[in-house]
């Protein structure tokens, strides 16, 4: 979870137009936003459970949380500030996911990333040991 594209983008746009937007959306590029805020994750988890007719999902992955850092880099946000916000966002998401695991709605959770282990000039690899 995390990507906001297609039908989700239409829904998010409508919510924004009525001042009910999810917090902390990253406007990564036209047609592709990103959000890992617990409110958005809750919405997506409940939608998935209902759509699949399940009470529990086996795995819930945060997809490419580093999009936030890439976006901050494009907007010339200082690396230290962006990295601090990045880890706070992931920590908040993990707290939410751990609660959902305890409630039995998720068996396992983690991060899925195309650049997870890459070290880019201004984007450090994600260090899950911080949690």
TrEMBL record:
Pfam families referenced in this protein's UniProt entry, alphabetically: Aldo_ket_red (PF00248)
Coiled coil stretches, renumbered: none
UniProt-listed Gene3D superfamilies: NADP-dependent oxidoreductase domain (3.20.20.100)
InterPro entries, A to Z: NAD(P)_OxRdtase_dom_sf, NADP_OxRdtase_dom
Domain of life: Bacteria
Ranges where the NADP-dependent oxidoreductase domain occurs: 40-119
Protein name in the entry: Oxidoreductase, aldo/keto reductase domain protein
């Amino acid at each position: 979870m995390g990507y906001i594209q297609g039908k989700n983008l239409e829904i998010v746009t409508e919510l924004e137009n009525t001042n009910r937007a999810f917090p902390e959306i990253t406007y990564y590029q036209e047609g592709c936003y990103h959000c890992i805020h617990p409110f958005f994750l809750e919405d997506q988890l409940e939608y998935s459970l209902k759509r699949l007719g399940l009470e529990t999902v086996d795995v819930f992955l945060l997809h490419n949380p580093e999009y936030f850092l890439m976006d901050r880099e494009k907007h010339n946000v200082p690396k230290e500030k962006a990295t601090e916000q990045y880890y706070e966002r992931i920590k908040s998401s993990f707290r939410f996911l751990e609660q959902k695991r305890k409630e039995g709605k998720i068996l396992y959770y983690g991060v899925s990333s195309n650049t997870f282990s890459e070290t880019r000039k201004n984007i450090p690899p994600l260090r899950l040991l911080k949690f």
